Amino acid sequence: MLAFRVVGLLCALLFSGCLSTIVKKNSTYPTYSLELYNPLQTPIAQPYMAILERDRSKSLGFLLLDGKSALLQRIALIRMATHNIDIQTYIYKNDISSRVMMFELYKAANRGVKVRLLIDDNGLDSDMSDIIMLNTHPNIDVKIFNPYRLRHRGLRYLEMIISYDRIKKRMHNKLFIVDNVALVIGGRNIADVYFDNDLEENFLDIDALFLGEVGLEAKKSFLEYWNYKSAIPANLLPSHHKLKKYAKTYASTLSKILHPPDQQNYNQEVQDFIQDFIHKKNTGYYGSASFIADNPSKINAPSPYSPIKQALSNILAHTTNSLYIASSYLIPGHALLKTFKKKLKEGLEINILTNSLSSTDAIVVYGAWERYAKKLVKAGANVYETKNDFFKYVKYTSKGIKYKIKGRLKNSLHSKILIFDGRKTWIGSFNLDARSAQINTESVVIFDNSTFATHLQNLMQEQMQESWHLVLEKCKLRQHLVWEGVEGGQVIWHTKPPNTSPFLRFIKNWSKILPESEL
């Protein structure tokens, strides 16, 4: 036992020493401040300048409903960029979608656009060849947030155990900012599964594109994270041996990025997106947009005050008619549950859409959610869980066209959206759980436009109709949850989580011993 403690202490000292050395090196790198130009004079803003100049406190909002459109819109914005592109993401994978995006970023950098990419290390592939190669471009900078010292994926679990308090705190923010005026925000990271491009699993998500002052506010937040001590230049992390190895593969890595698959296939679609954007053919919604984000110091010095929690508390207090929630990871906690019960008694209609056990990618989270599901249904909330084959039933393009996908993939809800009184929409990276509230850093936009909110609300209602409805059934002296749904035109009921095996339910039940605050 003593030997294990000594080894653990030595490893902890080693990690601490290595990290402090990197932080010292990082302090010699330049910090960045806000660029001095008028964002409204950029090509992205010019088609909409008249309306954006009418009231600087308001913005234009556009919905990005399906994964393919979300990727194409990002590429279109990259091609229209003239000054800078700033991307903050929790996950980055070396796959088709990321390489298509990197190809476009590389071309933008070649024409003089400054590109900054900030990635949380928890979601980064251990093979850093792509981003190390990108980082060699004079107009591209890549930083890794709160990095592991051990770069091999398998060894990270050791560091996770030894440095748990530091490693568990992650940058979960997802921002895509172009020319300080265009902001894409939502739940999507950079990987195939977020852009309907994976053959085995895909995430159902919704982004919003905002034009206006809110883009500048998001940029200020991005710079706080970029200049923070835990944001480390990518080239400082690999060993000298690994850097030499990457250098030998620069040519092949660059070739992969400069020749992405299906380039010709998506070129015309991107051009169509650009033309539709320039000629204002997409439905835009005008309203007040407030950007709210945690301070990056949250990962080092937790504070009882959270700007996002405070904003949620304030807006809930003034919500009187309806609340719609789409949350992939939903663990309300006792305080929020108490608030929901109080609001339900006051007559508030609460509608909740989250993952089922068969659709979730986080079984332990579902185990914790199950504690609250019955209480919420009993209190009067309308609770729905998505089916695993949800994408088989309904999808939407950004132009609102419904279509169906054949086949059965593993599909999971990933949205983080709240709609208050059919007027205000909350969209961003924040999940209704303790991890988002207390551990990770997050960012959201609150958009005040009733048409925008109602459109999303109608889509959520259709999604709920295709999902499992949780109801209570009295059995002897107790009430049990029942999953009610329609299949083949017939109403069916399940007394256990549908489409799950006994083993999966066993894992779910076992996971309930884990503390909610750590999930």
Structure keywords:
519 residues; alpha+beta; Endonuclease, Chain A; 2 domains; 18-stranded mixed beta sheet; two-stranded parallel ribbon; 22 strands; 25% strand; globular; disordered N terminus; Phospholipase D family protein; PLD-like_dom; PLipase_D/transphosphatidylase
Notes on the structure:
It comes from Helicobacter mehlei. Pfam families: PLDc_2. This protein is 39% helix and 25% strand. The chain has an 18-stranded mixed beta sheet, with helices on both faces. Strands 7-16 form a two-stranded parallel ribbon. The protein is of the alpha+beta class and 519 residues long. α13 packs parallel to α14. It is globular, with a radius of gyration of 23 Å.
Mean pLDDT: 87
Distance between the termini: 28 Å
Q: What does the largest sheet look like?
A: 18 strands, mixed
Q: Rough shape?
A: globular
Tally of helical segments:
18
Helix content: 25-40%
CATH superfamily of the largest domain: Endonuclease Chain A
CATH topology of the largest domain: Endonuclease, Chain A
Structure, briefly:
This protein is of the alpha+beta class.
Topology:
Layout: H1 2-26, H2 49-54, E1 58-64, H3 67-80, E2 84-92, H4 96-110, E3 114-124, H5 129-135, E4 140-145, H6 156-162, H7 164-167, E5 175-178, E6 182-186, E7 201-204, E8 207-212, H8 213-226, E9 231-233, H9 240-248, H10 250-258, H11 263-278, E10 285-293, H12 307-317, E11 322-327, H13 333-345, E12 349-355, H14 363-379, E13 382-386, H15 390-393, E14 395-396, E15 402-403, E16 410-413, E17 416-420, E18 424-428, H16 434-439, E19 443-448, H17 450-465, E20 468-475, E21 478-487, E22 490-494, H18 502-510
Parallel strand pairs: 2-3, 3-4, 7-16, 11-12, 12-13
Antiparallel strand pairs: 1-8, 1-10, 2-5, 4-9, 5-6, 6-8, 10-19, 11-17, 13-20, 14-15, 17-18, 18-19, 20-21, 21-22
Helix pairs in contact: 3-4, 3-11, 5-10, 13-14, 14-18
